[in-house]
Structure formats: structure tokens, C-alpha cells
Design a protein that fits this description.
291 residues, 7-stranded mixed β-sheet, 7 strands, alpha/beta, globular, Rossmann fold
Length: 291
């Protein structure tokens, strides 16, 4: 996302790309047609006055093909993850860990089916601090089933960070990891998958990943200029082999055709499924579980 469409400059060390994603979700609520692919009324509240003015000044630009494609990708991945989370809750999962939560808003607009969940937002302390400041300013209350877990993925292991929280490692757990893996080293990514694979049968992770191809090179160049370079790419076949070796027995990749049919049919706002969704789900074992 180009600089002039990003939300206003956050305090030092808070993620600029996370604010950019929040801005894309806000644009979807304010400027795209109905029904919404992702119904997220909180996203616009996270933008400050400068951010809203920037969006208003660039109203025409949000309909340019590259911005439309990026927005489609952002709202699709959250919609898909939340749908998978709902299915996990129906089979008995009662914990949710949102890795690299950034300015994700699920916990603040959670539907009735999520009330039984214990939700853990994991991210860098600076990003969490800025998010909480904006939520408080907007009058958004903290849900009672939410816990913040401050972790820098590159300096503290996810396992150690979560051990310091109230997360129960003996309970089946749903993990959401959207727009995160590409920024991590391969070692950090492998550690995340290994950790989730060690959770009880029925646990699940939904994640996004990047393949190394020319179609994404311009976007990678833009975020690199923001100080958040992309580091790790995957090929689906190799990824599937690695996940199976870690105990994931149900692995699926969302295809463009599947996404178009499920979420984008009949739209008149120009939103379509991205050519390469880069979204996957992996379940530990195959069995029902009950909390």
C-alpha cells in the first residue's frame, strides 16, 4: 500500500503495515458495496483524524486496481480465518491465539458464538500499546475474554511468550496467523508450526504465506521501504510435506476459484478473489474435541 494511503504516522516501532491493513479494512466498510466480505465496523474507529483525512483526500485512488486487489486480499483472509474459527468452536475448541494481531478487530466485534472463547492477541508491545490507545480514544471497551501477550517473535520464542500467559497448552486451540509469516525468518516460522503441531488433536492454524514470484515483487518492495522487509516464501507442495511431518493431517489451500465462488459472487464494486490467495488451514489430527 503506497505511503499516501497509509494511516497517519504511528509512534516509533509500532507497525506501519498493521495500520495500513486497518486502513484497508476501513475503506471496505466505508466505500465498498454490500454485502461486506468482512463486516468490521471497528476498523474505521482505529483511524485517527489524520488517517481519515488521508482516506478522504485519496477517495479516487482506493478504486485503482492495485489497491482494490490488496483490499480484496486483506478482507478475504480475515473472513476465511473467522469462518474457520467458527467451525473450530463448533467442534469444541475454546481458545484462540491471534499471532501478529496488529490492529485486528475480531475480539471487539465478536459474535455470540465466540463468547466461550478465551482470545489471546500476540504482537510486539509497541503495536499493542498504540492499538489500545486508539481503542480507548474511540470508546471501544476491552472484552473480558481477551488477553494481550507481548512477544517479539525474533527475540522471544512463541512458546516461552505464551507460557507466560494463561493459555492452557492441554486444550485444543485455534491459531490465526495472517500477514505474519512473510516477515519472519524461516527458523521463526518453523518454530510456530512446530508449536501448533504439538497442541492437542483438533487444534488448527489458519495462515497466509507468500510464494516467490514477480506478481508480488512490487508490494514487497513497498513494505521494505517501510522498514518491514519480506523474508520467507513457500511453495505449497513443500509446505504440505513439512506440515504433515509435524502432525497436521488435514491441510487445505484456498484457491482463487473457491474464494471467488464463496465470497465475491455478484459484487459490483470491483472486488474479486486475488489471483494467488496464499491462504491455508491446517488441523492437528482428525477428531472431535470437547472443552
Amino acid at each position: 500500500m503506497s505511503n499516501d494511503l497509509n494511516a497517519s504516522e504511528p509512534p516509533r516501532h509500532a507497525s506501519r503495515t498493521a495500520l495500513g491493513v486497518a486502513a484497508l479494512r476501513a475503506v471496505h466498510q466505508l466505500m465498498d458495496g454490500a454485502p461486506k466480505i468482512l463486516d468490521d465496523p471497528i476498523a474505521a474507529l482505529l483511524l485517527d483524524d489524520d488517517g481519515r483525512q488521508i482516506l478522504e483526500a485519496n477517495a479516487a485512488r482506493v478504486h485503482e486496481p492495485d489497491i482494490v486487489a490488496l483490499r480484496s486480499r486483506v478482507v478475504l483472509r480475515s473472513r476465511f480465518a473467522e469462518q474457520r474459527m467458527a467451525e473450530a468452536v463448533r467442534r469444541g475448541v475454546c481458545q484462540c491465539v491471534i499471532l501478529g494481531a496488529g490492529f485486528d478487530t475480531f475480539a471487539y466485534r465478536q459474535p455470540d458464538w465466540a463468547r466461550r472463547l478465551r482470545i489471546y492477541e500476540v504482537d510486539h508491545h509497541a503495536t499493542q500499546t498504540e492499538k489500545r490507545r486508539r481503542l480507548q480514544k474511540a470508546g471501544v471497551l476491552m472484552p473480558t475474554n481477551l488477553e494481550f501477550v507481548a512477544i517479539d517473535f525474533e527475540s522471544v520464542s512463541l512458546r516461552d511468550g505464551l507460557r507466560a500467559s494463561s493459555l492452557d497448552f492441554s486444550e485444543p486451540t485455534f491459531f490465526s496467523c495472517l500477514g505474519v509469516l512473510v516477515y519472519l525468518t524461516r527458523e521463526a516460522v518453523d518454530a510456530i508450526f512446530a508449536l501448533v503441531g504439538g497442541f492437542p488433536v483438533g487444534s488448527e492454524i489458519v495462515f497466509t504465506f507468500s510464494q516467490q514470484d514477480a506478481a508480488i515483487s512490487s508490494l514487497a518492495d513497498k513494505v521494505k521501504l517501510l522498514g518491514e522487509p519480506w523474508r520467507t516464501h513457500f511453495e505449497p507442495d513443500a509446505m504440505m510435506r513439512d506440515l504433515r511431518a509435524l502432525g497436521f493431517l488435514e491441510i487445505s489451500f484456498l484457491t482463487t476459484d473457491e474464494a471467488e465462488q464463496a465470497y465475491f459472487q455478484g459484487r459490483n464494486d470491483g472486488l474479486h478473489a486475488p489471483r494467488s490467495a496464499g491462504i491455508a488451514a491446517a488441523v492437528v489430527g482428525r477428531a472431535d474435541c470437547r472443552c
